[in-house]
Amino acid sequence: MVKKRALSAFIVLGAGLTAMLGIVIYFSAYLLKNIPYNLINLQYAILQNLDKGLSASGLESIKIPFTNFITNVFAQISTFISQLSSKSVTLAGDSLVYGILFLFAFFYFLKDGPQINESFKHLLTFEHYDRIKLVIENGIKNIVFLQVVYAIIAVMLSLPLYFVLDLPFLPLILTCLFIVCFIPKVGPTLVYLPISFYLLINDNLFGSLIVLLHGLLILSTVDDYLRIRFAGAFELHPLMVLIGYAGGFMLFGVIGLIIGPILLMVTRELLIIYKEKNKN
To answer: Tens digits of per-residue pLDDT, 4-56?
Structure first.
């Protein structure tokens, strides 16, 4: 009876988490598809007026594209919500199917895990198997370490600005920023865009613009810099790391920013093993 209850609870929990994950992934994909065009327009308007500095005329010329950007983003979010409600049945069905497939795959992985492990060992010698396993473990550790470092730096860079702007619930905001930084690329956007909009509707155009520029030009740049700076930890050339990130993102979406470099590391190690076995 206890085992049946535990299995039922596991199935319900797995189905619920799968549905939530499906909504988050779909929402992220929608934003990634629709927001970049508005960002480009806003960045173009800002660059056009940088020569005016932060004078009243410079800010006034940026106000219209900035307001349009914020309005478009939230209009797209509203459109997404309406589309999501109209497609909720399909999304729920897809989530249920994927959830069932995940549960079956997870069950057979636990059941036949040793046999799967032995199959890989037969394909590679014990020494090679350990090398591949070590490469994957090191890749995961490096990526987790990179995201932790980025999250800490993002919080440290944001704390003085948000403190000066006297934002309410500052500890909660910084905690949310730290957590969302583990979502590659789009994570900090989930924090600084709402803050920018909050300041805008409270008649603080200057603060709203500074927060947006801070997110676009500093937080995003630090993320990209760290990925290139820590390329040596992946034992790959920085160009190959960038290819891994770009290719992984194109094939797998946001999660590809994690999978891509690891696949490149494994491919590199397999080529080294092949070269060692055929050096004569």
So the answer is: 455 445 554 554 555 555 555 555 555 555 555 555 555 555 555 555 544 54
Q: Give yes or no: residues 104 and 150 share one domain.
A: no
Q: What percent of the chain has pLDDT over 70?
A: 40
Average pLDDT, the chain: 67
d(CA 97, CA 120): 29
And the tokens for 263?
């696949």
Only one residue has tokens 């860079």, namely: 157
Which residue is listed with tokens 């249920």?
96
Spell out where the chain has E strands: none
Beta-carbon contacts of 195 under 8 Å, excluding residues fewer than 6 positions away, are 162, 167, 173, 211
Find the length of the chain: 280
Cα angle 28-214-57, degrees, rounded to a multiple of 5: 115
Answer whether residue 9 is part of any domain. Answer: yes
> What mean pLDDT comes out for the span 92-111?
60
Residues 20 and 65 in one domain: yes
Residue 238 belongs to some domain of the structure: yes
Question: What's the domain count of the chain?
Answer: 2
- The reply to whether 147 and 274 lie within a common domain is yes
- The verdict on 133 and 267 lying in the same domain is yes
